[in-house]
Amino acid sequence: MANKTKKRKEDVPLEMRPYRVRVTGMFVWTSLAIAILMGFSIGRSARIILLKGAQALLAPHDASTMFVRPDHSEMDRASMPRPVALEGKEVPTTLYTAKNFDTSIGSSAASVYLERNSNTETCESAECRQPSEDASASNPVDDSDHLPAGQHLLVDIKNVDGTFLNSETRLADALVGVVNESRLTLLSYHCHKLIPLGVSCVGVLLESHISFHTWPEDGVITLDLFTCGSGELVPVLPVIERLFGIPQVQSAESSGEVEPPHVVWTHKLRGVVNMDTNPLSSDLGAFVLEKSNMDLKSEVGRTRTKFQRIDVFDTIDATQRDYLSYRKSLEDDASYESKQSNFFLPNREIYLDGVLQSTRHGNEAYHEALVHPAMMTHPNPKKVGIIGGGEGATLREVLKHNTLEKVKMIEIDEEMVSFSREHLPDWNTCSDPEGSAIWCGDDDRAEMYYEDGLAWFNNRFSDDSRIDTEEFREEPFDVLIMDALDPQDDVPFADILYTNEHFFKTLYNALNDDGLIILQLGASPDVHSPPERISHNRKRAIVMQSFENLGFRSVHVYHEGHCQFRAPWSFAVAFKGANGKSLWQRTAAQMDIQIRNRMIPTKSGEPTLKYFDGAVMEGYKIPPKGFEAVFCKALPTPASCLSDVKNMSQSRSVYDPFADRHTYMSKDSKHTICDDSTAAIRSVPTSIVETIC
What we know:
Blueprint: H1 2-11, H2 25-50, E1 65-68, E2 90-92, E3 106-113, E4 121-123, E5 149-158, H3 162-165, H4 168-181, E6 186-194, E7 199-205, E8 208-215, E9 220-228, H5 237-244, E10 262-271, H6 283-289, E11 294-304, E12 309-317, H7 323-329, H8 336-339, E13 347-352, E14 355-359, H9 363-377, E15 383-388, H10 393-398, E16 406-410, H11 414-423, H12 425-428, E17 446-449, H13 453-461, E18 477-483, H14 492-499, H15 501-509, E19 511-523, H16 538-550, E20 554-560, E21 569-575, H17 580-584, H18 588-598, H19 614-621, H20 625-632, H21 648-651, H22 657-660, H23 667-674, H24 676-682, H25 686-692
């Protein structure tokens, strides 16, 4: 059999036999090495031919170009400023593509590029193509996620010198200056001077672009600056105004005074923006930066403390104020505006982490509503505690009471107090009341504590963690005022402040038997708002529940509509003593007498209070309709909201949220309402008790 098989193989023709090639391992590795070497050589040669060297086919355009129409005067190419790479800047390799169309409508055109030299660092990695970390003049950038987002600054300037606006060389100088002072990177810019007047320029930035167009005959320039990344552009505004806002020159033919340059601007966030962490996407952006109808938007100051970011702006809304009257109030011409200049001041606004905190036009209304309803309701407030209040206005209002002996202000952010003293003098001056100090913090009755308010009260009044030493021994207060974050703020500290019943227990312990506490509760709800327990007002509902659980005898809710917060602002006052409700319900005449007897006179003779009086207090007695509406949406439905409660219309004249909390139709609450002593303490109307029990 083996012989037969062997014979058959030998009988197969040679061309039909299997073909086999054997190579050594050395040959394989040598071939692979040669292939790699050839690929590298070809790639390197192509790079040199296309990108490197003077004759490179795709070399970056380092050579600037200039076109001048023959029927117009020649422009000196050397006079056009050249972009420069700032020290420490890494400039990536870029390719330039352009197509020129008919330029006959322009008298000249110029394209100027970033020059590369031996001192210019180059980079070709992906890192270098990310937005620059120096994208603004003040704030560093944190682009760890490299989101496709940016900031857009639109600037209009009028009353600018026409000669400057028609000179592409001077305008190019200003463009390059803005870019350099803003720590941006200008790759190239391109300008066209139009016929008969006007210049258009666009600069290509590593971060994005800058462009402008001018109307020399009208003295107007519009400028557009966009940068990728989170480096802020608002700090660049003073640079733009200084370099582009060249004043007009008084000519022999013109009559009257020359108007100074006036800047109107808008700032917008573009692309994918993290709304939760960017303060510019909050109130600061909506009420100031993005508004286009502002005749004046001027940054007064900004800082970042250990705890928060602070921004202060002066604004004049064209729909509410007159910019020309403000300008006239600055002149010394015996006009009404100049004599009553305080009436025409811009509205100064303060923002903490982008959230509006206070305004010049709403300063007195808010702080008088926060302080005086409670202070006037207490028969003799001698010792007062303030939690928060870094602007100093709450302290200012407390110091107006002649019964006061000591006020202690516990504010965690000392830097904010100093910043407010410098930039918000109207908020914290006590120069007018007789016997006080220029700065309210210097008043002999005031003590300042730059500490955490929660820890301060916990160390002195907690049931289980009080520190029983002389340093922490503290007498109770007559009045406590919380002027801290809004309950709606979605930040961890607001959660700790308003959802921590242990903290409110220490405040309860810190009050005398007839003491009271008052706090602001944020924007008031309206009749269409959902129940507070399931809305962004959840923390406010928890506060009200804490007041009930801790045993406050009565709680009253009211709101003030003149605080300039774009919505009525709500407050709550809780009385520890049994007579708080009767004191709250005093007549307007009684309140006016109390105010007259209590307020310290002023040196100027002006009224001590600008908003609060007996008539205003009458409105505070009746809780807002919005609170009643959301209260009645709770589950189970409060008894006062049910249509079958007998004689409800005769039981009382006003909605009392605190009494109603004890009328829920549930087994767990029936024993509370039907207990005569408890019902008397809680002031539950007799008709409700009879109906339920």
